[in-house]
Amino acid sequence: MKLVPFGRTDLAVSNLCLDVSNLARIADKRAAYDILDTFCAHGGNFMQAGADVNATDRARSDSLLGQWMTDRDIMRNELVLTTKIIVPADDSFTRESLRRVVREACEDALRNLQVDHIDVLLCEIRPVVFSLETLLAALSPLIADGKARHFGVSRFPAHRLHAARWLPNGQ
After folding, report:
1. What's the sign of the alpha-carbon dihedral 167, 7, 140, 154?
2. Are 147 and 107 in contact, with CB atoms under 8 Å apart?
3. CA 113, CA 87: separation in Å to the nearest integer?
4. How far apart are CA 98 and CA 130, in angstroms?
5. 112-143: burial string, b at 16+ Cβ within 10 Å, e else
6. pTM score, two decimals?
7. In this predicted model, what pLDDT tens digit does every residue of 111-167 receive, in sequence order?
8. 83, 111, 164, 166: least buried by Cβ within 10 Å?
């Protein structure tokens, strides 16, 4: 497998990404380790944790991946880890409550994965509920604190993301 640049970041990722979000549900520990070992043996380094699954499966799969990294002495910089935070479309969120929800979800992922940072934190969020400024205010502290290196969003219109380039203070 070859490594390719990940957009405009400093990351080089395998041209295939292994989604491990359901790993604990579909495989026992031995089979899961075989899957992870095989992926890495073929040059894979890009893994998607905690995607669209229920909280229990997400935590179990994230923990399994973290334990595999520990058991196999995988250095953190050998893998590119991404995880997704799904923010409910709840118009009762304030800027502060959204920041708290995003931080707690990120910290849960870090704890379960047993790592100190996420390479790419994806946030699924509904633009009808949150402005781009509110979203950036929630995600930016995670970058500043070193909990995430980069972030991305899904289900957010590209033209609104493009507008982020023109926000004040380089947010």
Report:
1. positive
2. yes
3. 20
4. 9
5. bbebebbbbbbbbbeeebbebebbbbbbbebe
6. 0.86
7. 999 999 999 998 877 666 667 777 788 889 999 999 999 988 777 777 766 766 655
8. 166
